[in-house]
């Protein structure tokens, strides 16, 4: 029987007295593709950062591979993290190959130089995202979609079992976004557990095994077709959310916030 | 008259090479991590440290070194607490450490200090002991920089990613600040407190307009750093101009030249 890779129980978190997460419980099984959806400010990134150990759990319990995030030790390298794209200085003088290697820095060890096996792992990660031909290019010379794949390659460089992606498709065009999700599906087929944070419910519903709806608290975590109902989306995005159906999967438009689709 | 016939000029040339190399290498990370203003804040703190040394009767270079490190780490620590922004803290430290120095010199009735030399550099004042101290400090800085090269890269590129990967990024951010303090103190004797921060930024900024990778930037910055230090020294000698100011002006000229030529589209 599969055991949960990530287990969150009754988690609370607040920034300077403002509650961000309240009584969040969530469980991610091995090999599962989970989409974590919710509007902007719902606490999605905060939850991801607590799972990664970048922020502390103020109340409640978080376990990754059965351990609290801060006690993960070497298990840390079994998690790959794909941050939001605008996170980097695009003019930083680093080649794609060197950039992907930075994902292995912790594994290489403080004060140590990369070995042959590290460069081989970089090569494998680049091949997995089909960027091996561009390995000598600078990060700033890549397109948005290529840079997104570079971030995945970096996360894959430690050959992790779990991939955590934070709003991976916000800065790229729809076509690259589609390619990105296809890539995640291929990684899932190879046994990886995948958690994707997104506010884009329509697209992600086509790929995920289950969807967790977060708006300060997780109020449902089910299969996509069960989540995409009027009442769940209304609870998530408010009364003024409207649905556009496109095939079987509805796309939503939230009218409340100006200009946002 | 051969300028290298003078002992002070020989010492100044040695100091110039050392300062050129150190400022260039640490400067690349200073520019990439956007610590230029931090460098200015730390270098001004050296004045408080020098005054403290005179009042306590301790070697002022040593007190300046400790004072700069403590000021830099204090700024970095308080900025990490996120109550105040880093530039606010630097703005406060900048003026208050200078004021502290002026206050000590006034109250302590210290008359025999070459204030102008400390502020703007005095190559005549570089002693053998200064050179030995600079060599020791410089050697330590180089050792740390090369041993922890990849840790400094991740601190500048993506501290959060480094943390996820298990690198103690906070510790290396503090270490980088300590290296800046060390380099500022080494540069202080040659170009002075006020101009030291410029030498930390100019060669690196010049190199980064051309370099594709960090090792390339380090190499170009070292060439520029040593070039402007020695070029400025000899120019100052023949023009009978202050060496520190000449070095910084030469560095600025090279930076402007390279920046302007880089902005033209490449032919072919």
What letter string, H or E per element, gives the SSE order of chain A? EEEHEEHHHHEHEHEEHHEE
Question: What is the total tally of β strands of chain B?
Answer: 0
Number of alpha- plus pi-helical segments of chain B: 12
- Sheet-strand content of chain A, in percent, reads 25-35%
Q: Measure the end-to-end span of chain A.
A: 40 Å
Shape of chain A: globular
> What's the story with the biggest beta sheet of chain B?
none
Overall pLDDT of chain A, averaged? 83
CA radius of gyration of chain A is: 18 Å
- Give the helix/strand class of chain A: alpha/beta
Oligomer: heterodimer
- The helix/strand class of chain B is mainly alpha
Structure in words:
The complex is a heterodimer of chains A (about 260) and B (about 270). Chain A has about 260 residues and is α/β, with parallel strands linked by helices. Helices cover about 30% and strands about 30% of the residues of chain A. The termini of chain A are far apart. The model of chain A is unreliable at about 245-260 (pLDDT under 50). The longest helix of chain B is centred in the N-terminal third of the chain and has 26 residues, at about 5-30. Chain B is globular. Chain B is mostly helical and about 270 residues long. In chain B, about 80% of the residues lie in helices and about 0% in strands. Chains A and B meet through α3 of A and α7, α8 and α11 of B.
